[in-house]
Amino acid sequence: MPRLTKDQTRSKLRNAVVAEAIERGFSATSVAGVVKRAKVSAGTVYVHFANKDDMLQKVFLEIKTEFHATMMGAKAEANSADMIRRMWFDMFAFVGKQPSDFLYLEYGNSARILTPAQEEQTLKMTAEISEMLQQGIKDGTLADIDVETLSLLLVAPAMQLARRAVLSNQPISTATTELVFQRIWRAIAA
């Protein structure tokens, strides 16, 4: 069997970290469990990560960055209404393609695993999304309410639907996604 490249090994480790954390919880995740699941030597983990905390944090930031990039693709839309719609549906596309990664983000947020510096990185990502919503308020597309409330109205139902889909291993129908978006849109549109 040919040797894996460093990137292939890193990918195996990432998948194992995600699976272990989802199955066992962040606090019960162990390097030994990741090693066993990834079918690598213990030393291999330490080529990529300094320790368990570093492993959990780096995988979290990697996935968070991918998720954020997916959401930021909506910025290319010509108007705010299309931008918000695309952001919503792109989020569901990410969940559909990477359900375990989505759950890892959800659980990681609750576990508060990041250092203050890493938390700052995620706050910058949140600020970029807030700027997109602020643009919609400014141009009259979105209701003139605070951005945190707009974000909550948009994201909370989406996260709940996505979480349900992931945990039940049943995709959300396009019709349901569309219906929920339309109902939310009525609440947030100007």
Automatic annotation (TrEMBL):
Pfam families: TetR_HI_0893_C, TetR_N
Record has S-adenosyl-L-methionine as a keyword: no
Swiss-Prot/TrEMBL keywords: DNA-binding
DNA-binding region: 30-49
PROSITE patterns: HTH_TETR_1 (PS01081), HTH_TETR_2 (PS50977)
GO molecular function terms attached to this record: DNA binding
Location of the HTH tetR-type domain: 7-67
Record's keyword annotation contains DNA-binding: yes
Name of the protein: Transcriptional regulator, TetR family
Origin species: Epibacterium ulvae
